[in-house]
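Schema walk-through. Below, the input block comes first and the output block second. Nothing else is stored per chain. Lengths vary across the set, and this one has 109 residues.
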Amino acid sequence: MISTHNLRARISPKGDVKLFQIASGCVATGVSPDEGTLLTAGGLLSTVTPVAAMKPATGKLGRLHGASETLIGSLSATTGAGASYGGTTAYRVTRFGADGKVVKATPVK
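--- output ---
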């Protein structure tokens, strides 16, 4: 269960609940097709979390000069060493590595 507040829980098929925190917040979220990777973002911070280990890796998007910007919307998370993608309020497409770091942010033309 993911919410935009600091309320996050992993619920097993048996109903066991384990609470967890994500440093980036959850303004935007995405899950890989195999449900093995969770990508969340809040402000300029992004977090990639392998679901099995629940050990998040956090990255940060660089600021644009003179502009207010945040990561938004649904993020596309992929699996393994693949990349994840998201968008920003300043119309940049952002690519994240499996380590949570921002690989590239490209303006939409």
